[in-house]
């Protein structure tokens, strides 16, 4: 099936400094970030949103005794932006079926999934001694980085890499890959078949092989 029709209104969920949010803000048409939602105080993404004239809301997970109550407030905060696509950009919370099932959602992750899901992906890549890691954009489901993969790009691991140096090389890849995948989604250029997501790049490769 093709992803549904999109006009390009993005609500971005963030938990950190917001560098991937900035990449979306900088991209511009056809992507319009209309709202940013964060899950805790003192998140840099809020400052980036303010600088771009984009409204932000905080739904502090620590203020809720029950996760279901937090998810209801999060759902309302996202819905207020009337999004066509929700983008998780460094958002460090799992989401339940009511939230995940409401809108198309994509996430960016600093590894070549399914390797190294979760919050310490770069550290785990180094600990395992891999020679190549990278960035993945995937659709969001209820699991930990388990949704269908949209696109990936590899980053070589150097012998003297630290977590900081490797992450610094992965981030520019994330900043390019995430907006590209968001554009494909809002332009209805992704074809999803179960766990397989076919992009315009895939179609071009098939055409080239047939020539």
Total helix count? Answer: 7
At the fourth CATH level, what is the homologous superfamily of the largest domain?
Answer: Formyl transferase, N-terminal domain
Helix content: 25-40%
CA-based shape = globular
Number of domains: 2
- Strand adjacency order, main sheet: 3-2-1-4-5-6-7
Tell me about this structure.
There is one protein chain. The chain has 211 residues and is of the alpha/beta class. It has 2 domains: 7-103, 3-Layer(aba) Sandwich (Rossmann fold); 107-211, Formyl transferase, N-terminal domain (Rossmann fold), CATH 3.40.50.170. Helices cover 36% and strands 23% of the residues. It is built from 7 helices and 9 strands. It has helices at 19-27, 44-51, 67-79, 97-100, 121-127, 163-186, 200-210; strands spanning 9-14, 32-38, 55-58, 85-88, 105-109, 132-139, 149-156, 191-193, 196-198. A 7-stranded mixed sheet has the order 3-2-1-4-5-6-7, sandwiched between helices. α1 (19-27) packs parallel to α6. The radius of gyration is 17 Å and the shape is globular. It starts with 8 loop residues before the first strand and ends with a helix. Residues 1-5 have low confidence and may be disordered.
């Amino acid at each position: 099936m093709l992803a549904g029709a999109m006009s390009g209104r993005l609500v971005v969920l963030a938990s950190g400094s917001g560098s991937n949010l900035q990449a979306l803000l900088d991209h511009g048409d056809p992507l319009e970030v209309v709202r940013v939602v964060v899950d805790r105080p003192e998140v840099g993404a809020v400052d980036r949103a303010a600088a771009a004239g984009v409204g932000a809301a905080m739904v502090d997970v620590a203020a809720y005794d029950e996760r279901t109550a937090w998810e209801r407030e999060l759902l309302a905060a996202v819905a207020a932006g009337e999004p066509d696509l929700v983008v998780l950009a460094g958002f460090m919370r799992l989401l339940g079926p009511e939230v995940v099932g409401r809108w198309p959602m994509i996430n960016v992750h600093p590894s070549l999934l399914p390797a190294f899901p979760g919050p310490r992906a770069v550290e785990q890549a180094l600990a395992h001694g891999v020679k190549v890691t990278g960035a993945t954009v995937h659709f969001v489901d209820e699991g930990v980085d388990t949704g269908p993969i949209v696109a990936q790009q590899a980053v070589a691991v150097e012998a003297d890499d630290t977590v900081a140096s490797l992450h610094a090389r992965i981030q520019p890849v994330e900043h390019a890959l995430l907006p590209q995948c968001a554009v494909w989604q809002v332009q209805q250029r992704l074809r999803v078949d179960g766990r397989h997501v076919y992009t315009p790049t895939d179609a071009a490769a098939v055409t080239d092989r047939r020539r």
